[in-house]
Amino acid sequence: QVHIVESGGGWVQPGGSLRLSCAASGFILSDYLITWYRQAPNKGLEWLSNISPNGLYKNYGDSLEGRFTISRDNLKNTVDLQIDGLKPEDTAVYYCEARGVRGRGTQVTVSS
Which of 3, 41, 90, 109 has the largest CB neighbor count within 10 A? Predict the structure, then answer.
């Protein structure tokens, strides 16, 4: 079976940082383009970033203001999303996707 699991979310104060991680079972993550999305309360799914299988090519959504960094460790079979300077509007469930498979997400809550 193919599974994606996101982790690393939690509660953080504005200005803080989090490092989200995406792991897979049932397939080799390093073979695929990986995409991160998020869905804020009462809003649609927002595309955030993707990274090529070899990690050389990265793309980011225009609204991210340089605060997000995607990376991958193909030895560990993981893809991370570092978020700095967190804002309340970053509150959302964050998902990663590979080969059409998306995990259940990890909740990020930013508040004081």
Answer: 90
